[in-house]
């Protein structure tokens, strides 16, 4: 099987970069699980794992510190597109993010970026709708105690 190329597209700042160093650990019609190292050195975390939930518009990432400890779970609201000709996925970050800390604390971040993107016409109404619906779905899963299901899709691939 020829593994697809992965791209991360951001609205703020506007960029699209190939995730050429991400290692695909698993792929099917519903999820893509990857292992990665930070693109630029950071003091807070070193590497991690991500699971793209293709039918949920959610990417859940486990951020790991250099010593191997969990830093936090970071959840991006995304939209994906698949290019069959190039065998590539582009994952567009729809700005709203949720951080789940090891103690279970939940923090929603970057909602201000949605307002900026709307004001600058960088985000369509369709993208806003996708973002808000996926954010609502993710938060409902977390509040109902179903976040372990999302985490398990990554945990099963960690040695």
Count of helix runs:
3
Helix content: 10-25%
**How would a textbook summarize the main sheet?**
9 strands, mixed
Compute the average pLDDT: 95
State the distance separating the first and last CA atoms: 23 Å
Oligomer: single chain
The chain-level structural class is: alpha+beta
Shape: globular
N to C succession of SSEs: EEEEEEEEEHHH
Radius of gyration, CA atoms, in whole angstroms: 15 Å
DSSP E strands, number: 9
| Unreliable runs | none
Strand content: 35-45%
Provide structural commentary.
- This protein is an alpha+beta fold.
- It has 3 helices and 9 strands; from the N terminus they run βββββββββααα.
- It has helices spanning 111-119, 125-143, 147-155; strands at residues 5-10, 15-18, 23-27, 31-37, 47-53, 58-64, 70-83, 88-100, 106-109.
- Strands 1, 2, 3, 4, 5, 6, 7, 8 and 9 form a 9-stranded mixed beta sheet that branches.
- Strand 6 (58-64) and strand 7 form a beta hairpin.
- It is globular, with a radius of gyration of 15 Å.
- The two termini are 23 Å apart.
